[in-house]
């Protein structure tokens, strides 16, 4: 299944806030229409709840179904709580790190910076958005394209003034030099979706496929 490129507000109204997809607020879905009065809202099944949590992860981080399944399988083979490891794998992706540093306004925007070879990791060009960052990694912009990159990053940083993600204790950003630093593996409390995601339901959804 390919990466989603359709209307973003449609997914937000269905799944809730997805800051990685877009930070623009959507109109709340009305609950007082005549259809709702004639057809009361049914209680969601366990499968529906698991599917919703899985979709939150997929659309927030901009993954295909195959990519997310691969991350779940890697998390299942890694020592530690599978749900937490899964979130850590997703949060330590380069495109997400750029987003959390404020260098891009959305994860798709961060992916574009990486694909266009604007980003250096430890002094080397990295053009793979799924690159897994590690503690002590230094993230900067390519010198030859620095002015263009700086304009994109400056606009992104300015747009973050009225918006807050969970605190990123695992990251630091030097706005004067446009340099990010990964201090450590992310903790559960700093995950981008925070309390909005139940990773255990995602693991349950994929339990038969792993």
Short description:
The protein has 210 residues and is α+β, with helices and mostly antiparallel strands. It has 9 helices and 5 strands; from the N terminus they run H-H-H-H-H-H-H-E-E-E-H-E-E-H.
Describe it for me?
The chain is of the alpha+beta class and 210 residues long. The chain has nine helices and five strands, in the order H-H-H-H-H-H-H-E-E-E-H-E-E-H. Helix content is 43%, strand content 8%. It has helices at 8-15, 34-38, 46-61, 65-77, 82-91, 94-101, 107-115, 146-159, 199-205, and strands at 119-121, 124-125, 138-141, 171-174, 179-182. Strands 2-1-3-5-4 form a five-stranded antiparallel beta sheet. The protein has two domains: 8-89 and 194-205, Ribosomal Protein S4 Delta 41, Chain A, domain 1; 93-184, Structural Genomics Hypothetical 15.5 Kd Protein In mrcA-pckA Intergenic Region, Chain A (Roll). Part of the 30S ribosomal subunit. Contacts protein S5. The interaction surface between S4 and S5 is involved in control of translational fidelity. Keywords: Chloroplast, Plastid, Ribonucleoprotein, Ribosomal protein, RNA-binding, rRNA-binding.
């Amino acid at each position: 299944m390919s990466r989603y490129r359709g209307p973003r507000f449609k997914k937000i109204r269905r799944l809730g806030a997805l800051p990685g997809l877009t930070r623009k607020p959507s109109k709340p879905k009305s609950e007082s229409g005549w259809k709702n009065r004639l057809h009361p809202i049914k209680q969601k099944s366990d499968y529906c709840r698991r599917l919703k949590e899985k979709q939150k992860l997929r659309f927030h981080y901009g993954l295909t179904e195959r990519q997310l399944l691969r991350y779940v399988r890697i998390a299942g083979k890694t020592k530690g709580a599978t749900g937490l490891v899964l979130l850590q794998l997703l949060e330590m992706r380069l495109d997400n790190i750029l987003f959390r540093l404020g260098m891009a306004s959305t994860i798709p925007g961060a992916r574009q910076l990486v694909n266009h070879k604007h980003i250096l990791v430890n002094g080397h060009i990295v053009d793979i958005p799924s690159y897994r960052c590690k503690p002590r990694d230094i993230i900067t912009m390519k010198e030859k394209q620095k002015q263009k990159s700086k304009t994109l990053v400056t606009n992104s940083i300015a747009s973050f003034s009225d918006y807050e993600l969970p605190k990123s204790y695992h990251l630091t950003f030097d706005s004067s030099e446009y340099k990010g630093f990964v201090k450590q593996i992310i903790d559960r409390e700093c995950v981008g979706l925070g309390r909005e995601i139940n990773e255990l339901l995602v693991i349950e959804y994929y339990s038969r496929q792993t």
